[in-house]
Amino acid sequence: MTMTMYNINKKSCRILGGLLFIAVLVYLLQSSTFMTQKASSEATQLSDWDASNNNRSTQIDIIQQQQPANEKAFVTFLCDDVMGEATQVLVHSLQQTNTRHDIVVLVLDDVTQMVRSRLEYLGAKIINVDQIKYPWDSSSARRKGFNKACRYSKLNLWNLTQYDKVVFLDADTMVVNNIDELFGYPQFTAAVDIGGVLNTGVFVAEPNAETYKDMMATYENAPSYNKGDQGFLNYYFNQTANPLPGNYNLMIKFTHFSTLASEFVTKNTVKVLHFTSETKPWNFHFLHQREWRENYDGYLFGLWTRSLRNMRAQLEQGGLWTSTDDWENKGRVANICDRRLKSTYGRKYPRQNQFTVIITLNKPSINKQYLEHMLRMYASSKKVHQIFINGNSIKDQHGKRFSLNQAYLRSLKLRKPVKAVARGSYSTVNWKFNPIQGITTDAVYLADENIITSLEDLEFAFDLWKKNVDSIVGFKADAHSLETTTGSYSFVENLDDANRYSMISNNMFLKSDFLYGYTCIMPEEIHQYIDTYPACRDIAINMLVSGQTGSSPILVKADHVLEFEDNHPQTTRQRSQCINELSALFNGNNPLNLNSEIVSKVSPDQVLYTTPASWDTWASSIAAISRAKKSAV
User: Fold this and answer.
1) d(CA 395, CA 568)
2) Under 8 Å CB-to-CB from 274, ≥6 apart: which residues?
3) 628 burial class (0-12, 13-18, 19+ CB within 10 angstroms)?
4) DSSP structure string for 372-414
5) DSSP output for 181-223
6) CA torsion angle for 351, 357, 358, 360 (degrees, to 10)?
7) N or C: which end of the chain has fewer CB within 10 A?
8) What are phi and psi of 612, to 5 degrees?
């Protein structure tokens, strides 16, 4: 841990003292059952929240009911189109709470008319504002990862004097339940962030011409610990700041180390989700952000993408969003993620020392006895907790359709939970990566039916995966290479010229949560591409995992692996095309990472024992070793 020393004057001491008091007070508030002005009959249900539900009714505090609705507004701010869709999701989520108040989006000139039209269609009022000059060196701030220079322009909200009070929400927030009661809180009420400062992703403000004028006269010479608007506002309101319970600004990072924050999720009391840091639901799959673990939560990211799907559907009705009508699997993701899976899916995978086997039956006709052999083999491992079969029927050796119902599976007496999962009406190879209701292990082993690995190799690979949980671990690898003259990528079967690889093919270990990320959070355009080029599905999952975590895959040298006929043969040229075209869908970058390590089990004949040598002959002994090394090369 590094610590930075600052020169502290008397005013700074008062600031720090005030912030420390705020931090203590807010945690006392959060740990109690107290909730300011909360209606006693309100039942907040995060797990039942659905962005398409227009019938939610929430009791509003009596004090709020006595105040005119048009004197208050929710406000957000948009610099340009980069956060346009995130802002649309925010506006949509606010509308679903049946708020009585205006929703205002402050925009700069760089916001295009299309984004403005979509926001207005969703129910927002657009107000153009001038950009407020950034008081720091903007290029230096960007290099250090501080907020975009335009963010100071959110201070324009204090000039919205047509409103008595506003609640500001950053564009990377999403409202889960009605928050109209926030208008009963005093000016600059906000949740505490790390370090004791108040986070300005959600806060209450009282527009006032004199306050705005004073801010404009103050901000250029005022201190800001993060060279951003949050630092300035903490300085400006240091004597009058008020703490807000954390569930009104639930920052994902807190849910990983704070019991209080995680209980907001488990007890269904979240009001506003805040996707802080760089890792967000719309970029997690390609960002390579080193702090992704602290800022990623598959379940909460899934809530945002669900709202995104419903928001796009609403825009499509108004002719403001165009989807691919001829895609036969349109609606598949919503069917799986919003209907087939329970609303609490993905909150946790408690089993760490066992794994789930998911067998995908790609072959139209598979021998029944062969399937039973696979099931018995996997079930015999103590490290296997449960088995799922993607597909609930097969054709036996006589070509007769055979149902993999529970009665049949129980008759095998495998002593492990085994279940066949129907694929539904959608035909796609993406089903290999479907999240399945009932998975309780942190790891899954995806097994194609045409590959058999010994249990010893399988369990060794699982033990290796437990030490490298951010990676895909498997027994067959491929690589990619960059053509420097053209800037395009080529697929390389097995290892490249430098004995490296970047993808695991066919059977693989990976985190169960990556299945949910692939199916329910990753952009559906990637699913559509894989429907067109089905043999490239393993390239896509490798891109997702490496893009999200920045990790490389790990290849295991197995002693016993059998591979039968591949049902989806694909040429090297076609797979090269996949890498290039999928890279375009991953923000224009190829996220695959090369690795030169191959891991194998140690056997006695592989152990290198030392050879006795005399100091009198050290020169000749070293020369002999050097000659042996050269001959090996």
Assistant:
1) 19
2) 170, 172, 173, 199, 201, 202, 249, 250, 251, 252
3) exposed
4) HHHHHHHHT-TTEEEEEEESSEEE-TTS-EEE--HHHHHHT--
5) GGGGSPSSEEEE-TTSPEEEEEEEE---HHHHHHHHHHGGGS-
6) 170
7) N
8) -55, 135
The burial of 80, by beta-carbon neighbours within 10 Å (0-12 exposed, 13-18 middle, 19 or more buried), is given as middle
CA distance 563 to 507: 10
User: Which residue shows structure tokens 């699913």?
Assistant: 527
The length of the chain, given as a count of residues = 633
82: number of Cβ within 10 Å: 13
What would be the CATH architecture of the domain defined by 10-34+41-314? Answer: Alpha-Beta Complex (3.90)
SS3 of 265, please?
helix
CA dist., res. 244 & res. 261, Å (int)? 13
pLDDT for 619: 76
DSSP element (H, E) containing 26: helix 10-31
Predicted local distance difference test score (pLDDT) of residue 554 = 98
More reliable by pLDDT, 562 or 175: 175
The pTM assigned to this predicted structure is 0.84
Confidence band of 6 (pLDDT split at 50, 70, 90): very low
Domain 332-599, what architecture? Alpha-Beta Complex (3.90)
Q: What is the pLDDT of residues 479-494, one digit of tens each?
A: 999 999 999 999 999 9
pLDDT of residue 588: 96
Strand partners, 75: 104, 168
Structure tokens at 189: 């009420």
Placement of tokens 């928001």 in the chain? 311
CB burial of residue 534 (10 Å; 0-12, 13-18, 19+): middle
* 566's tokens: 């591949």
**Phi (first) and psi of residue 197, to 5 degrees:** -80, 165
Confidence band, pLDDT 50/70/90 cuts, at residue 199: very high
Are 10-34+41-314 and 332-599 in the same CATH fold? yes
Residue 437's nearest CA partner among 451, 462, 417 is 417
Ordered by start, the domain boundaries in the chain are 10-34+41-314, 332-599
Q: What is the DSSP string of 39-52?
A: -TT----STT--TT
SS3 label, residue 519: helix
Helix (H) or strand (E) holding 491: strand 488-492
